Amino acid sequence: MTSLKFVRLERQFKHLVYFDGTDAISVKRFEGRGVTKEDLSSIRDGDYVRIYGTISYDNFAKDLTCIASNVVKIEKAKTVDLAEAKRVELHMHTNLSEMDGVCDIKDIITYVYNLGHRGIAITDHADVQSLVKAYNTAQGLKKKDPERDFKVGLGM
Question: How do residues 54-111 score in pLDDT, each as one tens digit?
């Protein structure tokens, strides 16, 4: 979550909430001292950043806050599978499964394809809605690279 606020006359500060996958902290970055309005507005929700700053108690927020001295955008780390023999997942549920799936079928198939795996089996509980999407997504990926052997198993 990011928000841009005005403080005293035309001076601004940016309030960010940084989440590293396990915990979150409030981050404040003030205009001035080499930080322009453009720098403040360049960071958006979902950006991957490296933050340098000082952790201190904020009397206004009544919590520990990072006062950022530098915020640098970084690229999202790409997950790679370095195994020589790639696996094939034979039991995967999607968000259309009636019981326990949470991931979108297009995201799952694209992710597995990009890891270099040879295929995946979709085994949703009590429905076949995701199977058409799975098939169409796999066909779209095959059109990009017709030489690659990638299969989607469809089941229940």
Answer: 999 988 888 899 888 888 888 888 888 888 888 888 999 998 888 788 889 999 999 9
Q: Is residue 22 classed exposed, middle or buried when 0-12, 13-18 and 19+ CB atoms within 10 A define those classes?
A: exposed
Place of tokens 């429905």: 127
- Cα dist from 12 to 6, 40, 131, 132, whole Å: 4, 8, 50, 50
Q: Is pLDDT at 29 greater than 90 in this prediction?
A: no
Count other Cβ atoms within 10 Å, centred on residue 87. Answer: 13
C-alpha dihedral, 18 to 20 to 22 to 23, nearest 10°: -20
